[in-house]
Design goal:
Blueprint: E1 9-15, H1 22-36, E2 40-47, H2 53-62, E3 67-72, H3 78-85, E4 93-96, H4 105-115, E5 123-131, H5 135-151, E6 165-168, H6 169-175, H7 184-195, E7 199-206, H8 219-233, H9 236-244, E8 267-270
Parallel strand pairs: 1-2, 1-4, 2-3, 5-7, 7-8
Antiparallel strand pairs: 4-6, 5-6
Helix pairs in contact: 1-4
Length: 273
């Protein structure tokens, strides 16, 4: 199989000590895109792992799977692994998905099928409408998304952290993403809104993690709370919006900042079962 000469999608999979998960999740993604007829380049980001994650990723590449092994050292967070992997991507569309396999590979391929034919290009993401989470996590998720809605009522999503997210390469470049930790997902959504990038949100069934351990901790909720308030009321977002109005020197689009932003409304389609 090997790497496609001109991939349609570069899918970044950050992996931190995921030796138990990736032998199942990565081949499933490759097979789903192959069956759907899409040229996939999978960026296997070994995000400072201390187990056999890197070895397994290199084995996938040696076996001819369209996997690019990329080591990030040291581990500075989920977001940092994604940010350091973006320069490796070759495709006009860039996707981000955790390695845990909570979203079916077929749904990921269907999401890309939907966004690649949109005009103008949109941000494609999933809404985990059917989630096999415990009661506490469901309650936390409801309050979290409600808090985000209070701060950004026109964001275009009611599952801000739902992944995968698939974004046009030029729009991703214009975002100038900074978050090295878990806040990367809301940063993408907030900046997409101000750029006028509309959201296509597809309903999916979200499974429980089958292998390995989740790296999300209780401190993550506090990180989200603090950074959401800083982005909403601090100066960082204002400075970034001003930069959108300046002429681009690297080929990234100039959407016109907040003044030219459209209201981002989701177009939802339920995944077929």
């Amino acid at each position: 199989m090997g790497l496609p000469a001109e991939p349609e999608l570069s899918l970044i999979v950050p992996c931190y000590n995921e030796q138990a998960a990736i032998p199942y999740t990565i081949p499933q993604l490759v097979q789903a895109f192959e069956r759907a007829g899409h040229r996939l380049e999978l960026i296997g980001c070994d995000n400072g792992s201390r187990d056999r994650t890197g070895e397994i990723l290199r084995e996938f590449a040696a076996q001819g799977l369209p996997v690019v092994y990329h080591r990030v050292e040291p581990n500075e967070g989920y977001g940092n692994g994604v940010l350091k992997s973006i320069p490796v991507c070759r495709a006009p569309w860039i996707g981000i998905i955790p390695a845990d396999g909570q979203v079916d590979a077929e749904d990921v391929a269907r999401l890309f099928e939907a966004v690649k034919h949109t005009s103008p290009p949109m941000l494609g993401k999933v809404r985990r409408r059917f989630r096999m989470d415990g009661p506490l996590r469901k309650v936390v998720s409801i309050f979290y998304n409600g808090f985000v809605w209070m701060l950004y009522p026109r964001l275009g999503s009611i599952d801000v952290n739902g992944s995968p997210k698939i974004i046009p390469r030029d729009a991703l470049a214009a975002m100038d993403l900074q978050s090295k930790q878990w806040f990367l997902d809301p940063e993408i959504m907030i900046k997409s809104h101000y750029m006028g990038v509309r959201v296509l949100e597809m309903n999916v069934f979200a499974r429980m993690r089958g292998n390995g351990l989740s790296h999300v901790r209780g401190s993550t909720a506090w990180e989200f709370f603090v950074k959401l308030l800083r982005m909403r009321f601090g100066g960082e977002l204002s400075r970034w919006k001003k930069s959108l109005t300046r002429p681009s020197t690297d080929g990234a689009p100039g959407p016109g900042g907040a003044a030219g932003a459209r209201e981002a409304r989701p177009h939802e389609s339920s995944a077929a079962r």
